[in-house]
Protein backbone atom coordinates (compact mmCIF):
# COMPACT_ATOMS: atom_id res chain seq x y z
CA UNK A 1 0.00 0.00 0.00
CA UNK A 2 1.28 3.48 -0.82
CA UNK A 3 1.25 6.54 1.39
CA UNK A 4 -1.76 7.83 -0.53
CA UNK A 5 -3.89 4.87 0.54
CA UNK A 6 -4.03 2.97 -2.73
CA UNK A 7 -2.67 -0.48 -3.47
CA UNK A 8 -1.74 -2.88 -6.24
CA UNK A 9 -4.06 -5.73 -7.17
CA UNK A 10 -3.68 -8.51 -9.69
CA UNK A 11 -6.26 -10.34 -11.81
CA UNK A 12 -5.97 -13.91 -10.56
CA UNK A 13 -8.84 -15.20 -12.72
CA UNK A 14 -11.41 -14.06 -15.26
CA UNK A 15 -14.75 -15.84 -15.57
CA UNK A 16 -17.50 -15.64 -18.17
CA UNK A 17 -21.00 -17.02 -17.65
CA UNK A 18 -22.44 -16.97 -21.19
CA UNK A 19 -25.84 -18.42 -20.21
CA UNK A 20 -27.30 -16.86 -17.10
CA UNK A 21 -27.08 -19.29 -14.16
CA UNK A 22 -25.31 -22.04 -16.13
CA UNK A 23 -21.66 -23.03 -15.82
CA UNK A 24 -18.71 -20.65 -15.88
CA UNK A 25 -15.79 -20.46 -18.29
CA UNK A 26 -12.34 -19.51 -17.00
CA UNK A 27 -10.61 -17.43 -19.68
CA UNK A 28 -7.14 -15.95 -20.05
CA UNK A 29 -8.49 -12.71 -21.48
CA UNK A 30 -11.81 -10.96 -22.00
CA UNK A 31 -12.94 -7.90 -23.93
CA UNK A 32 -14.71 -5.16 -21.98
CA UNK A 33 -17.99 -4.07 -23.57
CA UNK A 34 -20.77 -1.77 -22.40
CA UNK A 35 -22.58 -4.52 -20.50
CA UNK A 36 -19.50 -6.04 -18.81
CA UNK A 37 -17.28 -8.72 -20.33
CA UNK A 38 -18.08 -9.84 -23.87
CA UNK A 39 -20.45 -12.85 -23.91
CA UNK A 40 -21.06 -12.71 -20.14
CA UNK A 41 -24.77 -13.31 -19.44
CA UNK A 42 -25.54 -12.73 -23.12
CA UNK A 43 -28.04 -15.62 -23.11
CA UNK A 44 -30.74 -16.63 -20.67
CA UNK A 45 -33.17 -19.50 -20.22
CA UNK A 46 -36.77 -18.36 -19.81
CA UNK A 47 -40.06 -19.97 -18.87
CA UNK A 48 -43.32 -19.81 -20.79
CA UNK A 49 -43.92 -16.26 -19.55
CA UNK A 50 -40.50 -15.13 -20.71
CA UNK A 51 -39.14 -14.85 -17.16
CA UNK A 52 -35.50 -15.86 -16.69
CA UNK A 53 -34.98 -19.01 -14.62
CA UNK A 54 -31.93 -19.58 -12.41
CA UNK A 55 -30.30 -22.07 -10.09
CA UNK A 56 -32.48 -20.69 -7.33
CA UNK A 57 -35.34 -22.73 -8.78
CA UNK A 58 -33.47 -25.15 -11.05
CA UNK A 59 -30.14 -26.06 -9.40
CA UNK A 60 -29.34 -28.55 -12.20
CA UNK A 61 -28.55 -25.52 -14.37
CA UNK A 62 -25.15 -25.62 -12.67
CA UNK A 63 -24.39 -28.81 -14.62
CA UNK A 64 -24.79 -27.13 -18.01
CA UNK A 65 -21.26 -26.29 -19.17
CA UNK A 66 -20.67 -23.87 -22.05
CA UNK A 67 -17.60 -23.63 -24.25
CA UNK A 68 -17.03 -20.70 -26.60
CA UNK A 69 -15.69 -21.60 -30.04
CA UNK A 70 -14.93 -19.34 -33.02
CA UNK A 71 -18.40 -19.49 -34.52
CA UNK A 72 -20.59 -21.04 -31.85
CA UNK A 73 -21.15 -21.80 -28.20
CA UNK A 74 -21.20 -25.50 -27.34
CA UNK A 75 -23.34 -26.56 -24.37
CA UNK A 76 -22.87 -29.91 -22.67
CA UNK A 77 -24.79 -31.55 -19.82
CA UNK A 78 -24.85 -35.07 -18.34
CA UNK A 79 -26.77 -37.51 -20.53
CA UNK A 80 -27.29 -34.96 -23.32
CA UNK A 81 -25.83 -34.62 -26.80
CA UNK A 82 -23.90 -31.39 -27.21
CA UNK A 83 -25.93 -28.36 -28.28
CA UNK A 84 -24.31 -25.91 -30.70
CA UNK A 85 -25.60 -22.34 -30.54
CA UNK A 86 -24.39 -20.01 -33.30
CA UNK A 87 -22.79 -16.78 -32.14
CA UNK A 88 -23.96 -14.83 -35.19
CA UNK A 89 -27.48 -16.21 -35.70
CA UNK A 90 -30.76 -15.58 -33.89
CA UNK A 91 -34.38 -16.25 -34.70
CA UNK A 92 -37.54 -14.36 -33.78
CA UNK A 93 -37.55 -11.13 -31.79
CA UNK A 94 -39.07 -11.59 -28.35
CA UNK A 95 -38.92 -10.25 -24.81
CA UNK A 96 -37.42 -11.52 -21.57
CA UNK A 97 -37.84 -10.49 -17.95
CA UNK A 98 -35.00 -10.37 -15.43
CA UNK A 99 -36.23 -9.32 -12.00
CA UNK A 100 -38.21 -6.12 -12.65
CA UNK A 101 -36.81 -5.45 -16.10
CA UNK A 102 -38.49 -6.62 -19.30
CA UNK A 103 -36.10 -6.22 -22.21
CA UNK A 104 -35.86 -6.95 -25.92
CA UNK A 105 -34.28 -10.27 -26.81
CA UNK A 106 -34.00 -12.84 -29.59
CA UNK A 107 -35.26 -16.40 -29.41
CA UNK A 108 -32.62 -19.04 -30.19
CA UNK A 109 -34.98 -21.52 -31.83
CA UNK A 110 -36.82 -24.76 -31.17
CA UNK A 111 -33.78 -27.04 -30.93
CA UNK A 112 -32.25 -25.01 -28.09
CA UNK A 113 -35.64 -24.79 -26.40
CA UNK A 114 -36.10 -28.57 -26.54
CA UNK A 115 -32.57 -29.23 -25.26
CA UNK A 116 -33.00 -27.09 -22.15
CA UNK A 117 -36.56 -28.35 -21.60
CA UNK A 118 -35.45 -31.98 -21.77
CA UNK A 119 -32.54 -31.53 -19.38
CA UNK A 120 -34.28 -29.32 -16.83
CA UNK A 121 -37.69 -30.98 -16.96
CA UNK A 122 -39.71 -27.85 -17.68
CA UNK A 123 -40.95 -26.15 -20.81
CA UNK A 124 -38.29 -23.53 -21.47
CA UNK A 125 -36.79 -21.42 -24.22
CA UNK A 126 -33.39 -19.81 -24.73
CA UNK A 127 -32.97 -16.15 -25.62
CA UNK A 128 -30.13 -13.80 -26.45
CA UNK A 129 -29.96 -10.24 -25.18
CA UNK A 130 -30.67 -7.62 -27.85
CA UNK A 131 -27.51 -5.47 -28.08
CA UNK A 132 -29.64 -2.48 -29.05
CA UNK A 133 -31.38 -2.70 -25.67
CA UNK A 134 -30.12 -0.47 -22.83
CA UNK A 135 -30.80 -2.09 -19.48
CA UNK A 136 -29.38 0.06 -16.70
CA UNK A 137 -28.13 -0.85 -13.26
CA UNK A 138 -29.83 0.55 -10.18
CA UNK A 139 -29.20 4.31 -9.98
CA UNK A 140 -29.54 4.17 -6.18
CA UNK A 141 -26.05 2.62 -6.20
CA UNK A 142 -24.54 3.92 -9.43
CA UNK A 143 -25.58 7.56 -8.97
CA UNK A 144 -25.16 9.56 -12.19
CA UNK A 145 -23.34 6.67 -13.93
CA UNK A 146 -25.58 4.99 -16.50
CA UNK A 147 -24.18 1.48 -16.25
CA UNK A 148 -25.49 -0.99 -18.80
CA UNK A 149 -25.93 -4.69 -18.16
CA UNK A 150 -27.27 -7.67 -20.10
CA UNK A 151 -28.86 -10.67 -18.33
CA UNK A 152 -26.79 -10.33 -15.13
CA UNK A 153 -28.99 -9.82 -12.08
CA UNK A 154 -28.28 -6.11 -11.91
CA UNK A 155 -24.70 -4.92 -12.61
CA UNK A 156 -22.13 -5.38 -15.40
CA UNK A 157 -19.30 -6.85 -13.30
CA UNK A 158 -18.83 -8.82 -10.10
CA UNK A 159 -15.49 -8.56 -8.29
CA UNK A 160 -14.25 -10.92 -5.56
CA UNK A 161 -10.91 -11.80 -3.98
CA UNK A 162 -8.89 -14.96 -3.53
CA UNK A 163 -8.35 -13.96 0.11
CA UNK A 164 -12.10 -13.77 0.67
CA UNK A 165 -12.54 -17.29 -0.65
CA UNK A 166 -9.61 -18.49 1.45
CA UNK A 167 -11.22 -17.09 4.59
CA UNK A 168 -14.52 -18.78 3.79
CA UNK A 169 -12.77 -22.09 3.20
CA UNK A 170 -10.88 -21.72 6.48
CA UNK A 171 -14.20 -21.37 8.27
CA UNK A 172 -15.73 -24.27 6.36
CA UNK A 173 -12.80 -26.50 7.30
CA UNK A 174 -13.13 -25.50 10.96
CA UNK A 175 -16.72 -26.74 10.90
CA UNK A 176 -15.81 -29.98 9.14
CA UNK A 177 -17.06 -28.95 5.69
CA UNK A 178 -15.37 -29.34 2.31
CA UNK A 179 -13.78 -26.34 0.57
CA UNK A 180 -15.58 -24.60 -2.27
CA UNK A 181 -14.42 -22.83 -5.42
CA UNK A 182 -15.11 -19.34 -6.73
CA UNK A 183 -17.48 -20.94 -9.22
CA UNK A 184 -20.12 -20.82 -6.46
CA UNK A 185 -19.98 -17.01 -6.42
CA UNK A 186 -20.02 -16.37 -10.17
CA UNK A 187 -17.47 -13.54 -10.06
CA UNK A 188 -16.09 -12.02 -13.27
CA UNK A 189 -12.85 -10.63 -11.82
CA UNK A 190 -11.03 -12.48 -9.04
CA UNK A 191 -8.28 -10.39 -7.46
CA UNK A 192 -5.07 -11.14 -5.60
CA UNK A 193 -3.41 -8.56 -3.36
CA UNK A 194 -6.29 -7.90 -0.96
CA UNK A 195 -7.02 -8.91 2.59
CA UNK A 196 -10.01 -11.20 3.09
CA UNK A 197 -13.05 -9.48 1.53
CA UNK A 198 -10.92 -6.39 1.02
CA UNK A 199 -12.91 -5.57 -2.11
CA UNK A 200 -15.63 -4.34 0.26
CA UNK A 201 -13.61 -1.19 0.88
CA UNK A 202 -12.42 -0.29 -2.62
CA UNK A 203 -13.65 2.61 -4.71
CA UNK A 204 -12.02 2.33 -8.15
CA UNK A 205 -9.54 0.02 -9.87
CA UNK A 206 -7.56 1.04 -12.95
CA UNK A 207 -5.94 -1.60 -15.18
CA UNK A 208 -3.42 -0.55 -17.84
CA UNK A 209 -4.68 -2.57 -20.81
CA UNK A 210 -2.80 -2.41 -24.13
CA UNK A 211 -5.67 -0.43 -25.66
CA UNK A 212 -5.74 2.08 -22.79
CA UNK A 213 -6.88 2.25 -19.16
CA UNK A 214 -9.80 0.18 -17.91
CA UNK A 215 -11.48 1.90 -14.96
CA UNK A 216 -14.08 0.15 -12.88
CA UNK A 217 -15.93 1.44 -9.84
CA UNK A 218 -17.16 -0.85 -7.08
CA UNK A 219 -20.63 0.36 -6.19
CA UNK A 220 -22.64 -2.21 -4.23
CA UNK A 221 -22.01 -5.26 -2.04
CA UNK A 222 -23.39 -8.42 -3.66
CA UNK A 223 -26.09 -9.86 -1.43
CA UNK A 224 -26.30 -13.62 -1.61
CA UNK A 225 -29.21 -15.98 -2.14
CA UNK A 226 -29.13 -19.80 -2.21
CA UNK A 227 -27.01 -20.15 -5.38
CA UNK A 228 -23.61 -20.36 -3.58
CA UNK A 229 -24.98 -23.43 -1.77
CA UNK A 230 -25.50 -25.29 -5.07
CA UNK A 231 -22.63 -27.69 -5.72
CA UNK A 232 -21.48 -26.97 -9.31
CA UNK A 233 -20.17 -30.54 -9.65
CA UNK A 234 -23.47 -32.23 -8.78
CA UNK A 235 -26.18 -29.58 -9.12
CA UNK A 236 -27.45 -30.37 -5.62
CA UNK A 237 -28.25 -27.66 -3.07
CA UNK A 238 -26.93 -27.60 0.48
CA UNK A 239 -26.58 -25.06 3.28
CA UNK A 240 -22.96 -25.12 4.51
CA UNK A 241 -21.84 -22.04 2.58
CA UNK A 242 -24.79 -19.94 3.67
CA UNK A 243 -24.35 -21.07 7.25
CA UNK A 244 -20.67 -20.13 7.24
CA UNK A 245 -21.22 -16.74 5.62
CA UNK A 246 -24.04 -15.84 8.00
CA UNK A 247 -21.58 -16.00 10.89
CA UNK A 248 -19.46 -13.09 9.65
CA UNK A 249 -20.75 -11.53 6.44
CA UNK A 250 -23.91 -9.64 7.49
CA UNK A 251 -23.58 -6.23 5.80
CA UNK A 252 -25.02 -3.13 7.45
CA UNK A 253 -25.09 -1.36 4.07
CA UNK A 254 -27.77 -3.83 2.99
CA UNK A 255 -29.68 -3.99 6.28
CA UNK A 256 -27.86 -7.09 7.45
CA UNK A 257 -28.05 -9.11 4.22
CA UNK A 258 -25.30 -11.69 3.71
CA UNK A 259 -22.78 -10.45 1.13
CA UNK A 260 -19.73 -11.75 -0.74
CA UNK A 261 -18.02 -9.78 -3.50
CA UNK A 262 -18.78 -6.36 -4.93
CA UNK A 263 -20.84 -5.31 -7.93
CA UNK A 264 -18.95 -2.93 -10.21
CA UNK A 265 -19.56 -0.63 -13.15
CA UNK A 266 -17.32 0.42 -16.03
CA UNK A 267 -16.13 4.02 -16.15
CA UNK A 268 -13.61 3.71 -18.97
CA UNK A 269 -12.12 1.09 -21.24
CA UNK A 270 -14.80 -0.18 -23.63
CA UNK A 271 -13.23 -2.51 -26.25
CA UNK A 272 -10.08 -2.94 -24.14
CA UNK A 273 -8.88 -6.41 -23.13
CA UNK A 274 -8.36 -7.59 -19.57
CA UNK A 275 -5.96 -10.49 -19.03
CA UNK A 276 -5.17 -12.79 -16.14
CA UNK A 277 -1.99 -11.68 -14.40
CA UNK A 278 -2.66 -8.03 -15.25
CA UNK A 279 -2.01 -5.65 -12.35
CA UNK A 280 -4.11 -2.67 -11.44
CA UNK A 281 -4.11 0.20 -9.00
CA UNK A 282 -6.99 0.31 -6.53
CA UNK A 283 -8.13 3.17 -4.36
CA UNK A 284 -10.01 2.95 -1.09
CA UNK A 285 -13.50 4.27 -0.56
CA UNK A 286 -13.72 6.76 2.26
CA UNK A 287 -17.13 7.58 3.69
UniProtKB/TrEMBL annotation:
PANTHER family named in the record: MITOCHONDRIAL AMIDOXIME REDUCING COMPONENT 1, MOLYBDOPTERIN COFACTOR SULFURASE MOSC
PROSITE patterns with a match to the protein in the record: MOSC
GO molecular function: catalytic activity; molybdenum ion binding; pyridoxal phosphate binding
Residue intervals of the MOSC domain: 124-283
Signal peptide coordinates: none
Source species of the chain: Piscinibacter aquaticus
Regions that span the bilayer: none
Protein name, as recorded: MOSC domain-containing protein
Amino acid sequence: MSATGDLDVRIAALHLHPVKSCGAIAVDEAVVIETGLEFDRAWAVVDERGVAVTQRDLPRMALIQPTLKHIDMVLRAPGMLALHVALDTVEAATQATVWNDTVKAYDMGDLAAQWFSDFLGRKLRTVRFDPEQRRLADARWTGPIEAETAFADAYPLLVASTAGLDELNRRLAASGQSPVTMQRFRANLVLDGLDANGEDHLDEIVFAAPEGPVRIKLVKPCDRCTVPDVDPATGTPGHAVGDALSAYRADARLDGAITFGMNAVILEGIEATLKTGMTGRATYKFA
